[in-house]
Structure formats: C-alpha cells, structure tokens
Amino acid sequence: MIENDGGLQVKLHPFPHLVADGLFQTGILNNVLDEFPGPNAPGWKSFANGTERKLEGSNPRMWGVATTLLLSQMARQAPGLAKAFGTPPLTMEALGGGYHLIEPGGYLAMHADFSRSPQSGRYRWLNMLVYLNPDWDEEGGCLQLWDDDGPAVTVAPEFNRTVVFRTSGSSWHGHPVPNTRPRRSVAAYFYAEEPPPGYVGDHSTRWHPKAGQPGA
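Now predict its structure.
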C-alpha cells in the first residue's frame, strides 16, 4: 500500500509524481496480462489521429477477474495517495482508463487531461498508471513528463511499474515517441469534491503546442 512514510518519494519536478516498482503482486499482474484483450477484441475504443493512436478499454465488461481485482487494489490506494500528495479525500474512477493498448507505431502526444469527471463531476487530482510490459528496452513508448522547456522526466513502462502524478491544466505528459512493440497498461484516475489549488476552470484534454508531431 502507498503510505507517506518515506518509503515512496513524491518528486516535485516538473509536477508532483512518484514512480514505484513492485507495488502490486506479480501473480496478479501476470493474470491481468493473460486476460488482457487483443487488439481485435470487441469493446475497444479506438483513437487514430495526429495526436494519439491508441486503444482504450474502460468498459467493465471487457475486464477479467484479475483486472477487476487489480482495479479494486488500485482504488484502495486512495488514502495513502491523499497523504503522500497532500490532497483532500480521493475517490477513484476508471472512465477513460481501464485497459490501454498501444500497438506498434502508436503514440500519445503531450497533453494535460480533462479537469472534471464527466461521470461524477468531481475534480481530477491524480492519475495512476500500472504498466504490464516485461523487459522494455526501447525509447519508444516511454512516458514523458514535461516542464515549460520540454522533457524533464522519462519513465520506461516496465512490468509492475506504477506511476502516479498530479493533474492540472499544465501537467504535460504522454509518450510521443512511437513504440515498436505492444505497450500495455491499466489506468485509473482519482478525484475529490473540491478543486486543486490554482484551479483555473473546467477544461477538456489540452494538447501541448507541439502535439501532433510524433517523435518530437
């Protein structure tokens, strides 16, 4: 479990984030990988344009037993995440999350996420990504976090690596360098009843000015 006891460090640049390896049981994640649907399975929401090329599986009917268990364990991280990041009480939602599959040649341009849940109206505070890719050995598909000057943090999407980060209108993140092998993850988002400090108003996904240039 995530606790604010010094075991996991929240780094502040370019915006608050943490990277944790081995947070979840390997056996559960292996089972998630075994039941992870292929690209031709029914239920995927497909995005293919100049800013993103990905498949999203947020419909619970797509999730197997192990995936449902993993998401419940992710939800139970809420109190520890609230302590670690200094947020109000958090509630997890998976709309727009669940399975994420990036096939070879796919990418996600740098962006900042929508600010409120279309499901509950709560304010978005944190993203959690759990990666499912053994022996990742390429630059393509790596998560990037940007500051105002460009790339500041790069994270390889290794198996059983969890990334959590604060969201705002300028929390630029993505994987703009296309991958050459399938990239799999499970994602969920944490919301609160009150807006984060400096909240500037409701907005949908905001694309960085360099968005639409895979490999930039």
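The longest helix spans residues 65-75.
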